[in-house]
Amino acid sequence: MIPVETLPGSEVNEPVYRVILARYPQVDLFERVASPQDWEVLYAVESLTNPRLRDEVGDIRLVPPEDRVYGDGASWIMASFTHPPVDGRGGRFNRDFGIYYCAADEAVAIAESSFHRARFLRESRIGKATQEMRVIRAQLGPVTLHDVRHLGGQAIYHPHNYAEAQQLGYALRDARSYGVHYQSVRAAGECYGVMRPRALSDAIHWRYLRYHYDREAIVDVAYLDGNGKRL
Question: pTM for the whole thing?
Fold first, then answer.
């Protein structure tokens, strides 16, 4: 186990990219309020007429009130934290709590997402498919993250077994870390695992992509215009 207190800090203040399925809608409830008090009232009122609201918003109780964000683009950020993994495997640094995984290089974010979508489709025994994806751009920082880029070759970077990395993730969460700065395992580049929403701001829809899956891998990534046509 890597002691959290031995990790150096990484000062981050830059745009970051994240790729999600395009079918995930923006939940405008977070955009329509400016404070935790306003959110509680609006949620209580709208839940009376919208039985699907809990599924769309997720479990807000998973995010401490002091870490929640509201306003323009907030739902793109909050969704990662209010909808934790449900597959039992989780991500590299999390298993049953949410993390906002992203990268400063859009190509790295695409490579990371392509790996995970291909694995999901392969395990679902799907032979060939296309999937519409959405790129989210947000501002990360200014914030200090825990830096593990110097630990290449250690178990936290195992390509498939996340056990050691998830142990570190739990320790970072317990230490109220803002997140982890690490090397991508899927491409030449770096990634961020953000653990507190307040480290992020100004999230917007950036572009659409279309993943072409065949022979157990994403074999092509198409960049789309606003009408869904390939650029």
Answer: 0.91
